[in-house]
């Protein structure tokens, strides 16, 4: 979304001011989507530096500081940049053309781009939509920035804390389990876009995990929380990831990783299995040009390759992209092979990891990327950190039989987890861009080029920014007891899993493993019934298991599912009561809300660096324990 808006603001005037030989000329929606695709890729690698790398430094697994390791950081980031991009291309046909996943943010982006390119002579309807977009965008930016100075009043409503302080003591359990109301324009906007089934599944998964299973675990002694303060009895932290005994004394958040990941994996694999013909067709379509040439060479195919055109439509749905704009098979296959070889070489010669293990990590990265794509396509949330943690656990177990030192095991399973994280992030971002491309009628091949260029920028920019910030704020990479301006909450889970997998036994609580297997089996049976015995018109009656799984792994922080449900209810009433008005303004308002909160977050980060943020000058009124909660 940032790339769409800023790209338009910068490049549209330049296209008019510059002569054509210096980049001037026509700049329309297709050119704009190319710009935003490059911007998306440029931001996709940032998660590496707010999860795996800080955890490695906190555990003493790398050098003294990122400046000393800058070369290794660059080469590892290069390996993470391209694998996920190249194996995305065959998935376009399944997720976008066959399953028609929503990709809410991508729909909003496509709508934004269309609105941005409304000319002075456009219809009155288009101008109204553009105004709706602009107004919701500005309101969301202003709300996000100003709320940082009064977060307990304008952003998060800790309602159960208020009742607790008023004397209703037991209600504090709602606060402990993350049932907080948050005025987040972005997720309310996402709720306006996604189907009601996705929102209901998301909030139902949160209720199942953090209002039923979680409290039951604590009551029966299967999981344990930590008191927030001795001054406030009953106020607990159930999200801590400091695990001295992860099997017998896990936190509820750690316990829930296992059934949550099983839900995500089994749901994605079941969906792929139920649509195996489409998957096979997707790959066959990608390889058809090579097969057609082989047939002509052997004298068994038509001279002009007509057979290939027929096969392209055998799966029963139409691909509107002309052949010259499709991504040729040799491009993505060649890129995947080259990036995989590069990854194996870097991991072998710079980190001492077996090439076979690295290749296996790439295979798992592909599998987990399917999960990320499903999640982003359905509810606009990508649980890549949890997927990376799950990969850590798998490869930590594999590495135990090698006899390597515990610190080497911790470093290698962390790096393989980061490969998974980056691949899943790149894959879901690329599919989202391809959704926008599809809606605007642009070229998938051009988007691949744009993503490759954007990723190249991200390799150096993300690494350099990590060095700059960790130099200015050393607490990012140390286990400091003081408050850090950039706490990076994903680091705690990454560090905890790295320590856990170096233990003699796989750290899965028995109850969590049994629950995971039961839920996984239930998901598979549900998916088989849905596709074998229920007509497509009734598929929306089945739960969206990916949304349920995301609610499990997000931890006891239920602001997102509640806000998304709120947005979906608004959309439901809006459509029923004022259908024409919804068609006029609905998507524009949602797009503005999503983009506005994101830009507001950037402004807040700048204020933090400039030492004028809400942390220094804001109020803690309405926040638990009287501490600033922005």
Description:
With 630 residues, this protein is mostly helical. It has one domain. The chain has 26 helices and four strands. The strands form two sheets. The protein has a two-stranded antiparallel sheet with strand order 1-2. The two termini are 24 Å apart.
Task: Give the overall pLDDT as a whole number.
Answer: 82
Shape: globular
Counted beta strands: 4
> Topology as H/E string?
HHHHHHHHEHHEHHEEHHHHHHHHHHHHHH
What is the makeup of the main sheet?
Answer: 2 strands, antiparallel
| Share of residues in helices | 55-70%
Helix- and strand-based class?
mainly alpha
Unreliable stretches (pLDDT < 50, length at least 5) are: 300-316
GO molecular function: oligopeptide transmembrane transporter activity
GO cellular component, one term: fungal-type vacuole membrane
Subcellular location: Membrane
Main location: membrane
């Amino acid at each position: 979304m940032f790339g769409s808006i800023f790209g338009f603001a910068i490049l549209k005037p330049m296209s008019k001011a510059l002569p054509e030989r210096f980049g001037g000329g026509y700049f329309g929606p297709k050119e704009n989507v190319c710009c935003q695709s490059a911007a998306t890729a440029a931001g996709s690698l940032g998660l590496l530096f707010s999860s795996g790398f800080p955890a490695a430094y906190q555990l003493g697994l790398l050098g003294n500081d990122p400046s000393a390791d800058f070369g290794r950081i660059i080469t590892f980031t290069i390996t993470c940049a391209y694998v996920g991009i190249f194996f995305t291309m065959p998935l376009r046909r399944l997720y976008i053309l066959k399953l028609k996943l929503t990709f809410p943010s991508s729909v909003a982006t496509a709508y934004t781009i269309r609105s941005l390119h409304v000319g002075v002579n456009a219809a009155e309807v288009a101008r109204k939509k553009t105004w709706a977009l602009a107004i919701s965008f500005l309101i969301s930016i202003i709300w996000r920035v100003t709320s940082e100075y009064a977060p307990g009043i304008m952003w998060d409503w800790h309602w159960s804390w208020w009742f607790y302080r008023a004397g209703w003591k037991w209600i504090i359990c709602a606060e402990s389990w993350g049932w907080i109301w948050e005025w987040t324009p972005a997720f309310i906007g996402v709720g306006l876009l996604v189907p009601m089934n996705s929102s209901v599944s998301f909030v139902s998964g949160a209720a199942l995990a953090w209002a039923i299973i979680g409290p039951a675990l604590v009551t029966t002694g299967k999981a344990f929380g930590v008191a927030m303060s001795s001054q406030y009895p009953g106020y607990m932290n159930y999200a801590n990831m400091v695990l001295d005994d992860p099997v017998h004394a896990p936190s509820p958040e750690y316990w829930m990783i296992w059934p949550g990941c099983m839900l995500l994996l089994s749901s994605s694999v079941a969906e792929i299995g139920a649509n195996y013909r489409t998957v096979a067709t997707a790959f066959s379509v990608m390889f058809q040009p090579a097969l057609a040439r082989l047939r002509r060479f052997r004298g068994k195919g038509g001279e002009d390759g007509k057979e290939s055109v027929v096969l392209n439509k055998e799966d029963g749905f139409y691909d509107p992209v002309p052949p010259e704009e499709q991504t040729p098979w040799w491009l993505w296959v060649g890129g995947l092979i080259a990036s995989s070889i590069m990854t194996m070489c870097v991991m072998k010669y710079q980190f001492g990891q077996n090439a076979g293990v690295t290749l296996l990590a790439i295979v798992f990265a592909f599998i987990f990327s399917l999960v990320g794509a499903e999640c982003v396509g359905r509810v606009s949330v990508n649980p890549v950190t949890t997927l990376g943690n799950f990969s850590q656990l798998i490869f930590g177990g594999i590495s135990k039989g090698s006899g390597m030192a515990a610190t080497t095991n911790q470093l290698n399973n962390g790096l393989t987890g980061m490969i998974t994280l980056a691949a899943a992030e790149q894959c879901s971002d690329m599919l989202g861009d391809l959704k926008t491309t599809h809606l605007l009628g642009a070229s998938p091949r051009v988007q691949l080029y744009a993503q490759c260029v954007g990723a190249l920028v991200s390799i150096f920019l993300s690494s350099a920014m990590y060095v700059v910030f960790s130099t200015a704020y050393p607490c990012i990479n140390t286990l400091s007891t003081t408050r850090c301006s950039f706490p990076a909450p994903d680091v705690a889970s990454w560090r905890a899993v790295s320590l856990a997998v170096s233990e003699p036994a796989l750290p899965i609580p028995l109850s969590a493993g049994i629950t995971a297997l039961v839920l996984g089996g239930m998901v598979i049976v549900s998916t088989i019934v849905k596709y074998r015995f229920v007509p497509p018109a009734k598929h929306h009656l089945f739960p969206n298991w990916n949304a349920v799984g995301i609610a499990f792994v997000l931890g006891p922080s239920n602001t997102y599912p509640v806000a998304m449900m709120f947005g979906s209810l608004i959309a439901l009433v809006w459509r029923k009561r004022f259908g024409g008005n919804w068609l006029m303004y609905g998507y524009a308002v949602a797009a503005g809300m999503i983009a506005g909160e994101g830009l507001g977050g950037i402004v807040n980060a700048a204020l933090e660096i400039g030492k004028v943020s809400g942390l220094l000058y804001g109020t803690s009124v309405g926040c638990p324990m009287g501490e600033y909660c922005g």
